[in-house]
């Protein structure tokens, strides 16, 4: 997703967060939301916020408990 590219390239963390928040607030599948939570977690880690990252990783796991990536 575009937000992931922004995170990986260090382009615009605030724009990436905005895109991820929109996905999490949308009416989409649990799988898509779990991916957004994973990327949100990575974003929080790169921003030096490990506690917030853990929250997003756990939310991703709750949404797709059988997904190895979560």
Mean pLDDT over the full residue set: 85
State the distance separating the first and last CA atoms: 16 Å
Helix content: over 70%
Q: What is the element string, with H for helices and E for strands?
A: HHHH
Total helices: the number is 4
Helix/strand-derived category reads mainly alpha
- Low-confidence residue ranges: none
- Report the C-alpha radius of gyration, rounded: 11 Å
Q: Specify the biggest β-sheet.
A: none
- Topology, number of strands: 0
Identify the overall geometry: globular
Q: β content, as a range?
A: under 5%
Topology (elements, then pairings):
Blueprint lengths: L1 H8 L3 H13 L4 H17 L3 H14 L7
Task: Describe this protein's structure.
With 70 residues, the chain is mainly alpha-helical. The protein is 74% helix and 0% strand. The protein is built from four helices and no strands. The protein has helices at residues 2-9, 13-25, 30-46, 50-63. Helix 1 runs antiparallel to helix 2. It starts with a helix and ends in a 7-residue tail after the last helix.
């Amino acid at each position: 997703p575009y937000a992931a590219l922004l995170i990986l390239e260090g382009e615009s963390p605030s724009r990436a967060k905005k895109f991820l928040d929109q996905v999490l607030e949308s009416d989409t599948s649990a799988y898509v939301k779990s991916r957004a939570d994973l990327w949100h977690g990575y974003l929080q880690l790169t921003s030096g916020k490990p506690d917030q990252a853990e929250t997003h990783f756990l939310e991703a796991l709750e949404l797709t408990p059988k997904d190895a990536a979560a």
